[in-house]
Amino acid sequence: MSERRPFHRPQPRRWWAQKPYRAYTIRELSGVAVAAYGAILLAGLVCLWRGPDAYALYRRILASEASLAVHAVLLAAVLWHVVTWFEILPKTMPKLILRGQPLPQRLVSAVALLAALACSAALLVVVVAIGAMS
Amino acid sequence: MSDTMACSKTIELRVLRYRPASDGEPVFVSYRVPYSDDMSVLQALQSIKDTQDGSLSFRWSCRMAICGSCGMMINGEPKLACNTFVRDLGPDVAVIEPLQNFPIERDLVVTVGDFVRKIESIYPYIMPKAPKPVEDGTYLQTPAQMASYESFSDCINCMLCYAACPQFGANPDFIGPGAMALLQRYNGDSRDAGRQFRMDQIAGEDGVWACTAVGICSEVCPKQVDPANAVNQNKTNSALDFFLHHVRRDQP
Prior knowledge:
The complex is a heterodimer.
Chain A: H1 22-50, H2 52-62, H3 65-88, E1 97-98, E2 101-102, H4 105-133
Antiparallel strand pairs in A: 1-2
Helix pairs in contact in A: 1-2, 1-3, 3-4
Chain B: H1 2-5, E1 9-17, E2 27-35, H2 41-51, E3 71-74, E4 77-80, E5 93-97, E6 104-106, E7 109-110, H3 113-121, H4 143-147, H5 160-164, H6 166-170, H7 176-187, H8 195-202, H9 216-220, H10 227-244
Parallel strand pairs in B: 1-5
Antiparallel strand pairs in B: 1-2, 3-4, 3-5, 6-7
């Protein structure tokens, strides 16, 4: 007679809070900060659409100390999201082969991150230039 | 075991044991093992089996990280027992458990049937574009064509990546990183024409889309196969396959 009686061990319920999964959890949660920042910008657009009084209130709220503190936290989370997003970028694409050898994933991440930073800087220059002209 | 005879240091190995005939659930049993600096965890387990408890069960074969048999959780991390040194554990206590996320058959032996079925499901062999008689010569491949899939062919089916994958832990039907690495090994091969058969196997919720890019599968891989890359690049392929399946000509 077979003695087989496989035992199913459940996965730890809080696996996401334990090493080495904690970094993944923080990376995913930082995506919430990106959404929150998008919602704040969207609220600004809605206030702009509703008229000068609503937009002035929006600006006053933005200038408050609580808002500045929230923005500092969101900026840190968004920067972390950017860095970790580009870290996993090479995992999501085919291997890039150069002269018969695969390109190192760290190089792919670094080049993509630099390109994103250059685009962000260029966008900032355009926005500042338009602001100065208007 | 001449190595152990000359050992002056000892370590306590807390081994999760499960004897289905007598245990209702797994229990930890401690063994104190003498060790030398060149002793692997596999050798320590063999020492326990030889000198303390002959009923301790574990899988092993090659002792050199090629066969993929001796995967287990060592201090909570999925590792091959044969290429983990006792000197790197402890210093006083180390915990040895069967691979996480798999049913335990007995002691450190887990059920592999489901994993094997997943491997079989992705057509793990080259399916040539057209039959080619031997007299027509060999299939040729450039170094770049080989480099695009070669690392995925290094998989030794040790299942450490499955033990590290929380999505496989949550959903045992997820095809998982190891089978996806093998799939990419063949889909990426310029001699192969079976891509569409394999894509049809991984399009559903239990295919690539169960992965959330945790990425620990690649970190624990003892052969640097990078299964996370295999899974995640096939999300793009699966999405393209979904949008293009009405227009493609090579319907299987």
